[in-house]
């Protein structure tokens, strides 16, 4: 048991700093810049650059990759993003992206809906989705 605990502690920093893959449905032919990604995940943009509707999916706050995504993709801490969305919700000016509990849930949702965009650990990517961006 003690060995398992030590091994899990050693692996934790690796998973938190893993590459992040921004994924969409395989039929989605659009390209995306990091600025577009920021605008999608902050509610300032509701369509892909090609004009098709875009619906972002977020990992739950409890998932370590979420904080990594907020920092690498959006350039803000998770607490800053949470405060940003709290203000928009309070004033009735926005609704934050739907939250899901795992990479697998993101992959399933995105693979079944061409309008969704999400992110997962790059190691979790399957052939059922298309990678638009990779964040290191």
Strand order of the largest sheet: 3-2-4-1-5
Distance between the termini: 33 Å
Helix content: 40-55%
Name the CATH homologous superfamily. Answer: Periplasmic binding protein-like II
Q: Could you state the order of secondary-structure elements as H and E?
A: HEHEHHEHEE
Description:
Keywords: Signal. This is Phosphate ABC transporter substrate-binding protein. Residues 1-18 form the signal peptide. The chain has one domain: D-Maltodextrin-Binding Protein, domain 2. By secondary structure, it is of the alpha/beta class. It is 41% helix and 18% strand.
Main attributes?
about 140 residues, alpha/beta, D-Maltodextrin-Binding Protein, domain 2, five-stranded mixed β-sheet, 5 strands, about 40% helix, about 20% strand
Show the helix and strand layout:
Layout: H1 2-16, E1 20-24, H2 34-41, E2 55-59, H3 64-74, H4 78-90, E3 98-100, H5 103-111, E4 116-121, E5 130-135
Parallel strand pairs: 2-3, 2-4
Antiparallel strand pairs: 1-4, 1-5
Short description:
The chain is of the alpha/beta class. The chain has helices at residues 2-16, 34-41, 64-74, 78-90, 103-111; strands at residues 20-24, 55-59, 98-100, 116-121, 130-135.
């Amino acid at each position: 048991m003690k060995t398992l605990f030590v091994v899990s502690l050693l692996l934790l920093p690796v998973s938190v700093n893993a590459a992040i893959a921004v994924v969409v449905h395989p039929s989605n032919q659009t390209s995306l810049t990091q600025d577009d990604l920021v605008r999608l995940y902050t509610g300032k943009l509701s369509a892909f650059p090609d004009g098709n509707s875009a619906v972002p999916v977020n990992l739950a706050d409890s998932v370590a990759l979420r904080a990594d995504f907020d920092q690498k993709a959006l350039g803000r801490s998770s607490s800053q993003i949470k405060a940003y969305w709290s203000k928009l919700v309070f004033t009735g000016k926005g609704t934050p992206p739907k939250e899901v509990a795992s990479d697998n849930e993101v992959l399933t949702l995105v693979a079944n809906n061409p309008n969704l965009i999400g992110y997962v650990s790059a190691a979790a990517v399957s052939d059922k989705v298309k990678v638009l961006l990779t964040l290191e």
